[in-house]
Amino acid sequence: MQDLLTQPHLQTVYNRALRRLGRTGSPEESSEIDPELLDALARELCADRRVPDGLRREVLRELVAPTPGGLLALGWLCRNQPVEASTALNFVANLPSGEPLAEALDAREAVEALESLMRAMEASRSGRLGLVVRLLGSTLLNEAARSAALKRVVGGPWLTPGDRRTLVEWALGLDVADEIAAGFTHSIPQAPAGLARTALPCLVDQGEDLAGVVRSVVANAASWADPRPLLQGLLDLLERSGPELQPALRRQALDLCRRHKEALLRRRAYQLAANTEGPDFLQEALRDPDFGVRSWALSRLNRSKTQD
User: Fold this and answer.
1) Does the first or last residue of the chain, that is N or C, have fewer Cβ atoms within 10 Å of its Cβ?
2) Of 177, 84, 81, 86, which is closest to residue 129 (Cα–Cα)?
3) What whole-number distance in Å separates Cα of residue 164 and Cα of residue 168?
4) Residue 251's CB: how many other CB atoms inside 10 A?
């Protein structure tokens, strides 16, 4: 690897990787290249457009690893040369699951990597769903990236309607591991809690009855350890499709969110209620225990009086 990095085409890439990490030096000065630098090199090399593809391919093969940069490296290879489906599956099987790394991929990078890995799976439907959940549950994607990747898969051509439904149910935290494991021999991670917000509207987009979904959330939200992402998804549904619901059901959903202990969630519920149900909700918001919510409601009422 170090011999490759001394080539003129890669000097700029190497220096940018060092700057990304706040370091200085050269390949000749280092006896070994640590994993953090390898990850930075992969990210910089994938972004560089001046390195010849033959050389880029040779180096990136060495940089594929269960890291954000390593995922980008594999994605580049999938886009630029034939990659076996087993290679993509083995890669995601070794990804760590859990909270996103500080240097995790953003939404654009994650969607590009996802599309690239799915390209490697074109000849094999088996394992596609497992690949997606392993990727979404990994530490390599930040919260926004997970949401963007889920939307892309649900709206993409890679999964069957049944698998898309299973994916959305997994993202909502439902126990569908057996259904996913039917075509995937590796362990199935627990869905990141934040995916519930994205998954709830996706469930409706997959043909589930809007009113039925809202009723289910209202009835079962209390059983969730942390219902905040679910309730944000509920408010997303109300914001885009609230007029399609019966007023009583819409009011139940808004009341559920207004009773939550998180002030930002209550404020959003009050705002949506004031827009759809009437200005009386602003008066109720003035009695909210949070100063920020009360200040927002007072400002909103003052603006209304000024406009009148």
Assistant:
1) C
2) 177
3) 6
4) 14
Q: Is 98 helix (H, G, I), strand (E, B) or coil?
A: coil
Distant-in-sequence, close-in-space partners of 69: CB < 8 Å, separation ≥ 6: 38, 39, 40, 41, 42, 43, 46, 63
* Amino acid 7: pLDDT: 78
User: What stretches of 1-120 show up as alpha helix (H) in DSSP?
Assistant: 2-5, 8-20, 35-47, 53-63, 68-80, 85-93, 107-120
Tell me the per-residue pLDDT of 70-106, one tens digit each, with 9 for 90 and over: 999 999 999 999 999 999 999 999 999 999 999 999 9
Axis crossing angle, helix 161-171 with helix 143-155, rounded to the nearest 10: 160
What is the pTM (predicted TM-score) of this model?
0.91
Residue 25 scores a pLDDT above 90: no
Joined tokens for residue 90:
């083995």
